[in-house]
Every structure is written in structure tokens, then in C-alpha cells.
Write a structure and sequence with these properties.
Blueprint: H1 2-7, H2 14-46, H3 49-58, H4 61-75, H5 80-95, E1 97-102, E2 105-110, H6 112-130, H7 137-177, H8 179-195, H9 200-207, H10 211-231, H11 233-245, H12 253-258, H13 264-280, H14 298-307, H15 312-339
Antiparallel strand pairs: 1-2
Helix pairs in contact: 2-3, 2-4, 2-14, 4-5, 4-6, 5-6, 5-7, 6-7, 7-8, 7-10, 8-10, 8-13, 10-11, 10-13, 10-14, 10-15, 13-15
Length: 352
């Protein structure tokens, strides 16, 4: 069995499915929905209608689902017909869902990224099992892969839709009602997820985070990325500043495992900046961009898009929450901890 699984490139592990594959799902979202959102924003600013036309295609549910399907399948080392068939499976999983009764009436809620992810996860692995095992592989492999993906979607997507809708609705509504405490919780939790080897962007997209909760998530993510970039500047200089500030704070995960206390300054700054985003500046964001932080400036761009007409106070809040406060507060906490001996020279060093 081990030899068969190895030959089929099937790796039955938590890390493979919920770290590697989920990270790939975020890349699929980035290459479709998020890029479409950015192009649409630029199109609105410039009046270039062709960018809005491209954005409409990139953000189409079937296109986003197909992009997730290919990304996840590629991460699972699928090839040929399995890889191509997973584009179909991803689209099916994304658009299937359930009709949910709300106070405003009945809405059709799709399983979205979570539906694509789970359908492709199962269909891809079973597709690899039958791939190149028959003389009519060109028929068997795509049929098995697509039918399995369809079956998983029919069984799970309605449940996923209900779960994601009510979880997201609970977080979004609770943050609206209790912006101070939820601002702290959402900012800290999503910020931690950003630095962990999982995809905070994918998780935010799955639950449909929006409104003030999305703003708090953005604040927490920015605190992690900008915070680690600034507090480790003496060790990593400009390369580290760019890699962490515009790339990912996940680069520090190895150092965090060795010395967890180095994570405290960014977590503390998240707990402060989160409620400022919700209670003072009323910052909003939604979906995948809420979990991206300053990676490619996607988080701030998402805030601009979600806000719409930005006045001077909104711009001030954006600059303070996404850059100035994360940098200043984290640096303050980290310098105090260096003086106390909690953080030592070299604890934040990266191999760049």
C-alpha cells in the first residue's frame, strides 16, 4: 500500500492537506478573485472600462472555483487529466450550496472556497488512484474525478454553506454589536493565523468575513507583517523588511518555534490596533483581502474597495492602522522586551 500511494503521489498527512493544499487555495483565490478585485478598483479609479470587464471575468464564481481547483490539485501533485478535471470539480464545489432563510428572506448561499477545497481534495486523490490504470484512461480518469467531485459537492456543499454562513454571520454581527472586544479577538486570532503555516486569507474567504470584522482582521494581519518587519530590522535589514512587510510574516515561524516570546510584541499590537480599527475609524474589509495584511498591499487595497468613497478620516485610519501603529507599537514592545532580556540579538534572524 505504501508503495502504491508513493507511486500515485498520494501523501496522507494533515500538513499536506491543510497547510500545503490550503495555502495553494489562497493562491488560486489570489489569481482570480483578488486580482479581479484589484483590477476593478483600478478601473474605477482611472475610468478604464476594460479593466472592469476583465475584473468581471476574473471574479466570476465558476472562474474562481476553477482556479482554486487547479491550484489545490497542483499542490497535491496531480498531473494531466486529473489536474485538468479538477478545474471542473473546483467550479462545481464553489457554486453549490443551499437556500438559507434569513430575516431578509431566502438567500442562495454557495459553499464558495470551502466547497471547492473539499471537493477537489477528495476528487483529486481518487482521480490519482485510477489515473493511467486502464487503456481508456482518457475517459476513466476525468469521469471518475468529476463524478467524485460532484458527489462530494452534493453531499457536503449544503452543509458547508450553512456552516460558513452562520459562522461568518455570527462573527460579523457580533463585531458590529461589540466592536471593542471583538476587535481585539478578531485582530489577534486572524493575525496569528496569518503567521502560522495555514492560510488566513482562505479562512477569511471561507467564512465570508466582512464589515468591521474584516477591518479588524486586516489590522491584525498588518500588525504581524509590518510588526515583524520593523522589529527584526537590525537583524535582517532591508531584505527582511521587504520580505516580511510585503511578503509574509510566516518567515518567522521557525524562530517563533525556537523562542515563542518573540511573537508577543505583534500580538499585543494587534490587540490594541484591532479595536481602534473597529471603534475609532470604522474600518471595513471583506473576504480574502481581509486576511492578506500588507502582502502586495492587498489588505489596504481591500479596505479602499470595501469603503468606497474614502474621506480624509478614512485615509488617516488606513495609514495609521495598516502601517504607522503596527510599526510603532510593535517596535515599542519589542524594545522593552529586548531591555528585559526576553528578546535577544539574533532571535529574529532570517536566512535570506
Amino acid at each position: 500500500m505504501k508503495a502504491f500511494l508513493a507511486r500515485k503521489k498520494i501523501n496522507l498527512s494533515w500538513h499536506n492537506y491543510f497547510v500545503t493544499a490550503m495555502g495553494a487555495m489562497a493562491q488560486g483565490l489570489f489569481a482570480s478573485l483578488l486580482i479581479g478585485t484589484i483590477l476593478g478598483t483600478v478601473g474605477n479609479w482611472t475610468g478604464w472600462a476594460f479593466l472592469n470587464d476583465i475584473a468581471a471575468f476574473a471574479k466570476n464564481n465558476y472562474v474562481v472555483g476553477a482556479a482554486i481547483g487547479v491550484a489545490v490539485a497542483a499542490a497535491l501533485k496531480a498531473e494531466g487529466l486529473v489536474l485538468f478535471s479538477c478545474a471542473v470539480v473546483g467550479a462545481i464545489g464553489y457554486v453549490m450550496g443551499a437556500d438559507i432563510t434569513t430575516a431578509e428572506g431566502v438567500i442562495s448561499y454557495t459553499a464558495g472556497p470551502a466547497g471547492s477545497f473539499l471537493a477537489v481534495l477528495v476528487a483529486c486523490e481518487l482521480g490519482k488512484v485510477v489515473s493511467k490504470e486502464t487503456k481508456v484512461d482518457i475517459l476513466v480518469t476525468p469521469i471518475v474525478t468529476i463524478l467524485v467531485g460532484f458527489g462530494i459537492s452534493v453531499l457536503l456543499c449544503p452543509l458547508i454553506a450553512y456552516g460558513m454562513y452562520y459562522l461568518g454571520d455570527f462573527i460579523n454581527t457580533t463585531t458590529q454589536l461589540h466592536p471593542f472586544f471583538m476587535g481585539i479577538i478578531v485582530a489577534v486570532v486572524v493575525g496569528i493565523l496569518l503567521t502560522l503555516p495555514v492560510s488566513s486569507a482562505a479562512i477569511c474567504a471561507m467564512i465570508g468575513i466582512s464589515g468591521l470584522a474584516g477591518g479588524a482582521a486586516t489590522a491584525g494581519c498588518c500588525c504581524q507583517m509590518v510588526g515583524f518587519a520593523v522589529m527584526s530590522f537590525r537583524e535582517n535589514r532591508w531584505g527582511g523588511l521587504t520580505a516580511q512587510g510585503l511578503g509574509t510574516s510566516m518567515l518567522q515561524m521557525g524562530n517563533i518555534i525556537k523562542r515563542p516570546v518573540i511573537w508577543l510584541p505583534t500580538i499585543l499590537s494587534s490587540a490594541i490596533v484591532g479595536p481602534l480599527a473597529t471603534c475609532v475609524f470604522g474600518m471595513v474589509n471583506e473576504g480574502v483581502s481581509a486576511g492578506m495584511g500588507t502582502c502586495g498591499l492587498v489588505g489596504p487595497l481591500g479596505v479602499i474597495t470595501a469603503t468606497g468613497n474614502m474621506d480624509w478620516f478614512s485615509w488617516l485610519g488606513l495609514i495609521l492602522v495598516c502601517v504607522v501603529l503596527p510599526a510603532g507599537l510593535t517596535l515599542l514592545f519589542s524594545e522593552l522586551m529586548r531591555k528585559l532580556g526576553w528578546i535577544r540579538q539574533g532571535d529574529l534572524k532570517l536566512d535570506l
